[in-house]
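Q: Can someone sanity-check these two? First one:
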Amino acid sequence: MKLLITLFFMFIAATAILAQDNNVSLENDYKNVAQKLLTSDSKLTIGGYGEVHYNQVLNKQTRDNAVLDAHRMVLFFGYNFSKKTQFVTEIEMEYANEVWVEQMFLQHKLNDYVSLKAGMLLIPMGIINEYHEPTTFNGVERPVIDNKIAPSTWREVGVGLSGNILPLSLKYQLYLVNGPSSYDGTKGLFKGGDGIRGGRQKASKSYMSTPNFTGKIEYIGFKGLNVGLSGYFGESQSKLYDKLDETNTALKLKADSSVVGISMIGVDARYNNKGLELRGQFYYTSLSNTEKYNTFTRTGSKRNDLASSMMGYYVEAGYNVLRFFEKSKMELLPFVRYQDYNLHNTVDANLAVNNAYIANVITTGLTLKLTKGAVVKADMDFAKTNTTNTRAVTFNAGIGVTF
């Protein structure tokens, strides 16, 4: 970890010295709302997104009520102190009664290739964690693996840099951040059924035992194609390290048992050409020290069931069938997505594989883009775990806006 930190700051220094100011022109450069605010010429800018969902489980044996949910309403505020120094924040209300801050950072441009960032940052893993506005993806709900493996929306406090290397057609992000909490002083927060998701600190009085490293690099040199490689490396955080007596071996061993090492790698690709939209994503997460962690965080005599590794992927294809109508400004995309995940890819010697944590989901539906920034969606989910022979079917519908 010390080597990563050293290399991180060496890269910052070298890039700041070597980079030169030039006009930037990037192909396949996707931008979320926060990134668009950073390119605004206005002093104060406002943006946002929102989505309302309808979810109905379809079951032949039982009748289920539908769930209607004002899932998210989000406001962005950006302020340009100068052409180089900017501030962005994202305030989200979920389920009509929970309020969170999802981003809040200060950015300072050293030149056209390097920007320093500090504050509450989105972890740059995969696609959805950064591009989660409802108009940026097909389907009413976000892909399952972006909930189970990379715990969207994943954000922590950190510092680092972002920018581009135009001669190589590359974009990059590199950050030092605090990690997810695996032990809050009373219980373990990582579980087999949702991995590290329960440990997201969300910058809410978060604490740090050791800094972690995350980064992403994207290739944008081929028309219509964006390919990303992302990573997250470090250790979980534990309250047992607070005021720890370094001379007390027993307490040190106890604290060490409450921590999990995290190495996560993601690969993603997006391709758009003449109405055809393709995208795919793969995650692999390796977790160390899980045998000790599962024993330490047991409930009564029952050990925890956190895996030693998790993996998942999805592939998706869609096509705008209205592109043949020249006068139509709307887009209608039938799409299909196949997802597969294994939250018990490997487990420690004292843990049996839970087949309920191994599943695949087929989602097919329609995305109607009424205009830029406004969509209506409908789809069907067909989910199956390794414990069942049939698929659970859910109908989803919703509206989404981004501005």
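And here is the second, same format, sequence then tokens:
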Amino acid sequence: MTEMDDLTRAVEATLFAAEAPMTAEAISAHLGGADVRAALADLAAHYRQRGVALVERGNRWHFQTAPDLAHLLRREREDVRRLSRAATEVLAIVAYHEPVSRAEVEAIRGVQTAKGTLDVLLEAGWVRVAGRRESPGRPTIYATTPEFLAHFGLASRKDLPGIDELRAAGLLDPVEDALEAALAESGEEREAGEIGQSKSPLAEPPLASEEESA
């Protein structure tokens, strides 16, 4: 693309000034209902070899630093926050099995989940409240957020790696059991010899607390 048309320039300006990633529908509404799909594709191609890139994460578009240049903008001192094993397991289960209730997370993990564990993920912006399950008690259900996809460089949940990919990359420890259980609950076939999990929390034996199991 050597010269941008007026619509493409307007889309570029809208995204540049936006305070948060925008869906194509939101951009279109901002520009009077124009069809912006072709303009977004043109912009993404235009920025592909530049210092910033236009990317789509969770159906929302935003500019970000080109991945190969990210190291140039890192601060010398980074504030690293590490998730606990419990939080990592819960995040994995939500990502692979959303929308999911706290009771369903506990059924997969086999251990009670402390309220603070979900609070950490909510505060990080990686998990959100997605409504209530239409079942007795109407439990709250949780799902991942566009921020989760953006942080891990995923266009959608379809890009989540499978167990074999994670195992080959050596990334399963310490969440292998939780991931395998989550994938199994999502309909993936378990390997021979693995213990099954019931989908009904009521069918589970009494759960130990995280403190008791530590």
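A (reply): Looked at the second one. Strands lie at 22-23, 52-57, 60-65, 100-101, 127-132, 140-144. The CA atoms of residues 140 and 185 lie 19 Å apart.
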